[in-house]
Amino acid sequence: MENNRTLSRSLTDSRFGSWGWSMIIYAIIMYFFFAALSTDGQNLFPTAFSEIYGFDPNTLLAYATPASIVGIIGGFVFARLLIKYSTKKISIISLIITGIAFCVWGLCANIVLYVLLLMVVCFFASGFSFVAPTLMADWFPRKKGVALGWATIGAPLSSAFFVSGFSILLTKAGFKTAFVIFGIAVIIVGILSIFWVKDTPQEVGRYPDNMDPEFAKTLAYRPEQAAIDEASDITIGQVLKTSNTWLIGIGYGLLWMVTVGVVSQFIPRMMSVGYEQSQALMFLTISSIIAVPGSYFWGWLDSKIGTKMASVVYSVSYVVALLILIFSVNEAIIWIGCIFIGLGLGGILNLIPSMVISVFGRAGFKQANSIVTTIASLIRVLAFAIMAALLTVSGGNYTLPYTVFIVADILGAVVLLLIRQKKMK
Length: 425
Prior knowledge:
The chain is an all-alpha fold. It has helices spanning 2-10, 17-38, 45-53, 57-62, 64-84, 87-105, 111-139, 144-151, 154-173, 175-196, 213-216, 223-231, 236-241, 243-264, 266-272, 277-305, 307-326, 331-345, 348-380, 382-394, 399-417.
């Protein structure tokens, strides 16, 4: 009984130990780089390239969708490679190649090379995007909620600061130099990964979840048990035949699609109700800043009430956000909407891997995550096409797409409630 109380208290604290915090900081950087290069940068890169090389910015922006699909393919490829090769090797290779590609990207004076390098960046950036949750699964199988809550802070930090920071770098250093500087920063982290990344806590004489050695002996954290866990990995066939795989992928895919749809059209929606672009951008920036503590909040809530119920709360929060966007009649309501949107931004990257760990365990995470995240990502990218189609049908009125997204959000929550979630032994 006392052991259970001690374990319960430890699930929501942030005592990860020096090596544990080191891995969390590394994961924060991975999420930051991935969000900056694959998502947030698309608010800036097309315009920047068009100003220097004379490309049509709308044409460049159109290539973001096929590049995102290439990124999804890359994510699946690297997720499969993570099963066979160490997390350290994948992070080193993906970071260094991404950094080199980003440096060269800034030198692309024709549109064919632009598209090619964009796809290379998205493909290899997906590699280190899978490194982050894999590290958290190996280091914190029980404290996954709080650990992922800290780690996923990297994504909203990118949303809040990358575009403005890189804009300053473009102005101060020049276009080509700015790309080289950021690319070199990515390469440096890749080189540091040789010494920094530890695939498991056992490599540095630690136990998962920073457990005290004596207390760990009373649980399942014994060296011999760790070896059994590593050897008991499930097969891809078993993952595909498991209903939970599809429930997690489809359920979170719908929630992720709603999140992307709301955020991608937030500025146009605000402008449609009378706000200037600068004001709309300010609202989005505020939401991104709120997402930083929001990431920790979802991790904490995950640890307190469980991943499934935390996901339902997440779904409800976006229903509220969508209703606010539909009835955004005054600035006070808009500010409330910013809070809900910001909280949501910080949650989805946390909850997906947390649920995979909850259902498939530490040993089965890599195999299952490669399938689940691919399914969810394929549904996520439908957000742009659905939003565009519904706005065309409605003549630019956002009530129709937001209503459809409310239905999709509720459906996602219902699907997630069907998951048969087992407790880790």
